[in-house]
Structures are given as C-alpha cells and as structure tokens.
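ok here's the first one, seq then struct tokens
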Amino acid sequence: MLIVGIDLGTTASVVAFMQHGAPRSIAIDVGKNTTPSVVNYEKNGIIVGREAIYRMNPAHSVFSIKRYMGTRKKFFGRSPEEISADILSYLKNSAEISLRAPIDAAVITVPAHFSDAQRIATKRAASIVGIKVLRLINEPTAAAIAYGLNKNISGIYAVYDFGGGTFDFSVLRLVDGVFQVLATGGDNYLGGNDLDESILIHNLSQHDINLANLNDGEKMLGRLVAKSLKENLGDNKEVTKNYIYKNESYEFQLSDVVMKNIAQIYLDRTLKIADQVFADAGIGEKDIDGIIAVGGMTKMPLIKEAVRDHFDIKVLDDINPEEAVAFGAAIHADSIAFKKKKMLLIDVVPLTLGIETLGGSVDRVIHRNTAIPIIQRREYTTYKNNQNGIKFHVVQGERPLAKDCRSLARFELQNIPNMQAGAPRVQVEFYVDVNGILSVSASEKSTGMVQSVLIEPSSGLSDEDMVSILESAAKNKEKDKVEVAQIFLKVESERMINFWESLLNDIPNEYVNFVRDEIENLKKALEDMDYSKMADHKKNLEEISGQFLDEIISERLSRKVIDEDRREII
C-alpha cells in the first residue's frame, strides 16, 4: 500500500512519501521534484507541468487555479475542481510509474485560510482521480510536522509560509509528537504571483506602456519574463531580459534596489498578518523558539533576511522550503495509515462560523482558532406565534453583520408544532471535522424533528457532475488498470522526444551527442513497444536535464513573440 503526501500548490506541486523512516520527494516532471501547477488543454490532449509552461498560451493554458477553488468560474468549460483533478492525475500517474506501485491514499495540504467551500472542492478534485484523502491539513502545520519530527525540535514555533499564490502564518506548540496550533492567519491572494505582476507593471512604466493595453497573450508572456527576472536576481545587483510587445523588443530590468522596494509592500502585509496571529495566540514574538520558513518566496535572500531581521530570531530553512510542506504531509499520512509514530495533530478553525439572527447580525457559534475537531451547540426559538419553520443562514467571517461575511449555506427546519412565540426549543449543532469541513444540524426538542446540511461549495461541480465522473471512473477501473501505466509512459516518451528535439540547437556542446543518442534509443523503444527500455532512456534524459534545462527555458522565454493571427507563442 502506497501512501503519499501531496502539496497541491498554486504555482507548483510536490508529492512525497516515506522511505526508510524519512520523507522523500518524488521526481516527477522532467526529473524535477516540483511540478508547475500549469495545465494546457490542447487538441492533442492535456499537458501538465514544465512542458505546459514551455507551451503556455492564453488560448489553452490555465495556471494558479488554486486561487479559484470553491468558485463557479469556468476555464475552457472546466471547473477549478476538474482542473485541479487534472494536475492531481498527472502527479498520481507519474508517481505510480516512478515508484512502480499504485497510490492508495494521501494527505493533501491546503492554505490555513482556505474556506470550507475551498476545502471541499480540494477533496472533490482528489475523488475525481481516485485518491482517497486521509486528511486535509493546513500547509504551515505540515511544515511544522516536517521540522518537528524530521528535525526533532520542540517548543513554540511560528511558520512563515510565503508561496506563489498564498501566504499563511501560524504559531504552534511542538512537544513530544504533539502539534498544537495556537493561532493561524493568512491571505489567499498574497504570493509570489503578486510580486511578478508588480515587476511587470514597473518595467512597462519604464517604457510608457500601460498594462491595460496588453492583450492576454502579452500579459502572460510579461508575467513569465517578470518571474524569470525575479528568480534570476539572486545575489546579482541587476538582471535583464527581453520582452516583445507589438513586434518590438524592450529590455526589462530588475535591480536589487527595485526588488527590495517592490517586495517591501508585500512583506509589510505578511508581517501585519503575523502580528495579528501573535495577538490571537496570546503570546509575543520573544516567546517563540524560532521561525520555520517555507514556500518558494522564502528562497529569495531579501525575504529571508527581512523575516530574520523583523523577528530577531533564528530562521529554520535547512529543509528545502518548496518540499517541507509535502514532507510534513507524507509524515502525517504515514502516521495515520501505519500508526508508526505517536503523533497528535491539533489544528484550528481559520475563520469564525456563525448563524445570521434577526436583524442581520451574526451569532458566533465557533470562533476562529478553535481547536478541531469541535462540536458546538446553540439554542434558538421562534419570534412569532404559530411559526411552523425556522430558516437558518450559516456564514463564515469576522464581521458582525451577515451581509459582510461569506455565505456558506441556507436551510430550513420545518413542521415545528404550533406554539407561542419563544416556546419551541430548537438546537443547532455545528461540527467541524479534522479536515476543517463543517456540517450543521437543527432539531426541535419536543418533536425530535431534525434537519441537517453538509456545507457544500455554492459553485463548481454539481452533484450530477460528480456522480457521472465517479461512475465513469468506477466502471472502467479494471479495464484501465492494466493499460494506464504503459499508455502514460508511451505518451510521456513521445512528448519527451518532441521536447528534446526542439532544444537540440540550444544544448551545450558536451551534452549534444548524449541527448541525440538517447532520443534515438527512446524512438527505437517506442517502435518496439519495449516499455522497460522506454523507462530507462526517459530516465536518462530526465537525469541530465538538471544541468542546463532551466537556463534554456529562461533564455527561450526572453525571446518569444506572440503571433496574433494564430494566438500562439512562437
């Protein structure tokens, strides 16, 4: 039985599993341990990962889909759940081929500030591709598990999780395998993508170009160039890349001074959230033993230095910040499935849950940062004589009025006996499970009449869509099981041949002959349908790619032009 941890990220995803008692990430995408969360819907099929980035085009590409989880927005006719399912399918199939075993279940991480609807949407995405979700856990909590068990630390620690699309900050107490979240906070619309946008706007302004005047393709390419500038700055004082706009080449620049000024705006927002979390936890910054830095943004020296300087305490970053969350998920998955470690995880409700009362105010039933799982009850009654039903409106948020909070569900308890106003006693029960998912029930005590509701996303896939998708998967499961690994390997091998042939002119001279030979070997294996040799030659190409692939792609991106007639990047 193969159990994994999955960090389903906004910009990149990671799958990890336990091997010889330690977490290890799985090299999935061209031999890399992180897979870009990008999907292309092309005529010839679905492409996920680095190749999808290389072939990004607004006519068929989707990225940062995590920001739309739990909404009714559609992309190329697909809901965010379905697109996330396509990413999970690629991760699952690739991991199964790599490990030569089927994945049975997983712990999947979500931002600490994810709403109930977003959490359910994430579970649905996993269900579509046949992944049993052992538990959803918050990303900063998973990072703390990775350090708490893998690095054997104890005390009170803060987790500063600055990713590509979201920011989370949590304070936890770690003692003898107990992980107690004291408080958490975050912003689902604060991440590295926002810095990329600011870098793009800054450079456009230097050439008197307005972002609003760019079409979708020009914006997409501009963000890719901005992202490349950010990632290549490192310890350099300045980096440059070419950007093509209206068939003219413009030099985009990014200096350490400009980057610091841009980043400071977002850093201030993260630190303001951190201050609120400390207040919620009832402790001061000096009460913690360290800060765990995770998320791709913390790889930037200026981000790490700013965190260290602000809190004036050691920053733990000796686990790859892009892998720490998946490591923690794998450790927790292993503990649930095999009970190998004595570990207790006490997470919290990220946002207050309540009921709208007469006049539109909110009766807060479960307050934010309450430990889960949790059951809370409230008693309500009628406000007029012979009232036969009570309508309930469940909301989520910190505002005192329901209209300013997120609406989660509406339901009605009917057939209440005729009584004077105030006589019926209706008990409402809120239950939040270990995944942070809420269910609500209401019962009238004199009759035992009960009405309950699982808080479903108000959008995305309908129940009929889910049933159809799941029935189709179940019907074809046995038929597909035998062929899926070979088909996937064949398709990936064909794509790899096309991919590497397109790069031959850019490959460093010392690797050209090796790559040419491996391409021919892979073609021969395909012709012979020799799946063992396919896997071997594919692996050889993946292993050598780390020497130069990122540099080639970065250079290619800097010289791409948008062909307006074909709407393709060429």
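and now the second one, same deal
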Amino acid sequence: MRRDAIRGIGVCLTLWLGARDTLHAQTVQGVLLGRMPPQPLSGVVITAARTRDGEIVARAVTSESGRFQLSVGPDSVVVRALRIGQRPVTLFLGRLAAGMREDVSRTLPDEPVAIASVRVRERARCGAASPDSSVVSALFADALTALAGSVSPMEGAAPVMRSVRVEEERDRRGRVQAISAPVVSEGATTQAFRSVPVPLLLQEGFVVREADGGSTYRAPDAVVLTDDRFLARTCLSLDRSREDDGRIGIRFTPAKRTDTRIDVEGVLWLDAATRSLETLEFGYLGLTSVAASVNPGGTVEYTQLPDGRWIIERWALRMPRLDVTMMPVPRGGGRMERLQAVGTSVVRGLVTEVRAGNRVLYSAGGASGDAALRSALTRREDITRPVAPQARMDSAVLVAGVSATALARVRQCVERTSNSTTRGMALVVRVLDSGGTARAATAVEAEWRTRYTRMAEGSWAWEAARARAETDQAGEAVLCDVTASGRVKVSAMPPGCEPVRVTLRPAVGMLVSDVVLRLPRGCGA
C-alpha cells in the first residue's frame, strides 16, 4: 500500500517588515476624524491606486489616533479612505514630486451606503444585471475593506501575535485518528499565513502535483482575494442561506474553468447587521472524484481588534488522504491499483494573543486557557462532552496569580454553572496602571451577543448581554455567567479616562478565563 503525499500551506507566522523607507519617497499622510461625534477614526483602510491601471500600490490602516502614512511612488495615484458601510472618500488625486509629502487630514463625512431589504437573486458580475445587483457590489466592497485591513500596516510597530497550530489525521467520518503536538509561533505580524503570489496561482492553480507524486494544496489569503488580477476572473453572487443566523454571504466562483488548473470557490460571510467580515469558507474545483469525496477546503475566521486592526483569529485547511491499494480484477484474475480516499489531513490553528507593547489587544483565554486552547483546535463535538462537577471545580485553580478572594468568587461561579444548564464561564479581569500597579475601584464590563432578532420597526439587530463589576483592592473583578461560545468585548472604564478594551475569544467549553487590562500612561487614580 502506498500513501499519496499531501502537503498543506505553510501556516507559520511570518515577520512583518514594516513600512518602506519614506525618507526620499513621495508620501501621503494625515489624520482622519469622524464628524459625529468629533473623534479620531481608527481602522480606516487607506488605499493608493495608480490612475493609469487601477493597481493598488500601497495600503495602510489608521491608528487609534486616526493617523496614517503611505509611500505612493512617482506615478499619478488616487488615495481613498474605505470604511465598512460608508461610501469611499477620495483624499488625494495626482502625482507628487520626489521627496514631497502631502497632508490630507480631514473630517470624513457620515455617508452610509444604505442596504435595504436584501432580495437580490442575480449575479452582480458574470450574469444578467439586475436593479439590485449594486447590493452585492456594496457588500463585497465591505468584505474587501476588511480583507485589505488585515494586510495593511498601521502607524508604529506591528503588534506581536502568538499562535498555536496542530496537524490532524481524520477518517472519512471526521473522527480524529492522530494529532500532532501543538506548535507555538510568535512574531510581529497580523497575518497568520500567506499564500503564494497571485501570478503563480493564476498560472498553476491552487493544487499542484509535485515530482514525487504528492500534492501541494494552496489557500487564498487576503492578498489574493483583493488582487484585481484574481477578481477579474471571478463571478459574484449573494448567498442568503444563513440569514436566520445573522449572516449574509458573497459567493465567489471562477468566471471560466479549465481542465488544466484547480481553482477555488467559496463564500465570504458578513455580519448582516454590521456588514463586518466574519468568515471565509472555500473549496476546490477540478479535483478528481476520489479527492473531492472528502470535501477538501478550508475556513478562515476574521475579527477586528479594539485599535481598528483586522486579524485572522482561526484557520483550518482540509486535504484528502489518499491510499493506493491492490484490488482483484473481477474477471480474468490478476490485480489492479485502486485509488481511494481514507480521510483528511487537517492543518488547524488559532491566535492566542495579540499585544501592542504591554497592552493586550486580543486574548484566547489568558493564563487559564492553555489546556483548553489545545482542545479548541479539534472539532466542537470532540470537546463538548459533559464535564464532571469535580472537574469543573478543579478547573477554577487554573487561574494563576489571583488573590484568595477572587479565587473563592471564581469557585462560586463554577459551582453555580455546574449545578445548572447555563453554559457560561467565570471571567477574572485584572486592571493595572501603566506601571503594573493594581487599580482598585475601576468599573469593568463584558459584553457579548445573544441572538439575532427582528426589531419593532422590522429591521434586524443583535441583542447583547452584559456583566459588570468593580475591581477590589487587588485590582481584580470576577464576572459570572459570561458566554464561553463566542467573542467577548471586555472593557475597563477608569474615571476620567477613555475605556481600555480587549477582544476575548475563549475556547469552546472553557470554564474559567482571565484577562489583564493595562491603563495608558497618564490615566490617574
């Protein structure tokens, strides 16, 4: 028996090289403010495109202070500001002399692109145009804005991202047969993985047969999905199959197929209320029937950090495991080779922490999450088995370094959860000042979504739940019954200072999480 070699994409962290040297370059820079209320706009995607062919030559994302800087080169360019749900704003059009800097600071108008009741059925591209096809284009523009934001530099050093990755072997029913030891990576980047260059993909396709008989599977990343050369060969349509769950999809398929290349098709899922990008799902077109029988493909989950950056927080790539066996010939005797799919190889990873300096922007559970994070890399059904009450109680001691008072409160939360049908967790929030001293009497809040519901006026929106507390003398607060099945926005609200926020994504089934919020310098007691 010979096993067909399968190679996945490299999902290791790659170092972000920083912005290009702008000492002698043409530079467009500025500070962008919002009109209502007047405040810096973070997370705005700035693009510079050559006017002669529309190719994007530079991208950036505004920082929390609303600042950005682009090195645009000697060509004539158009610089635009892109915000999800808002009309693009042209900041600059023209050519700059060598070494020239153009300041385009301004207050951006509030001009939302209204998306009425989405009833579009026609394709916005590659099909008969309909009066509503602009809906698809507007939603796709929002998805592209988030994708561009995930690969665009922000003023200052890149954040430090820590991730963990495992490789699994699964049978045809999806059951784990083997799993590698977790591999932890850390580096200054916001990109969890990178695909190969677009020209190579368009020439060779997304699956390449190697000289030794193995196959290399490639995944589309944000650079690919926002490249005009890829989009020029892509058709778009609306996918409404998950509207009841609060999601609307933009399906992309190749405009023209060829037997000589393996292509991808997929769906970009957006939040139907906020129009922010949530998930990319994709599969392969043109595989043999044997390889396609195990549904190879992948998922990539996106989220926006409190400072406006977009990151990939989770990803997975499924590849077929193929065996060649000798089978008897029904008539005439003898034996023949038969290729069959015996399961899948899965590369799975998640981001565990993102830090900017000593400030945490994103956390997947803090100190209590290490064991649960490894479990979270497997499928949900593998990690949601009933947990014995004693095991629930023992999990409370996973929170290291907290006071006896907070630990007792954690145990109360866990005990209450174990005696009820509530699927919540205990959340320990520690608030420190810039010097690392505990900050007492600071209000903290956790907020998360509960359900997508129709409002009285007929529109749809997410309902939210909140838990609030105040830190004690040790700078600690314990929140009970916080959701353990989705993202949680955790905030510290010190008197007289701006709130400090972090995005928390606990592993499925986690009973206890903790997170540290550091107040900025100058935020007095």
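notes on #2: The helical segments are 133-150, 198-204, 222-225, 228-231, 289-292, 370-376, 389-395, 404-418. Residues 21-112 form a domain with the Immunoglobulin-like fold (CATH 2.60.40.10).
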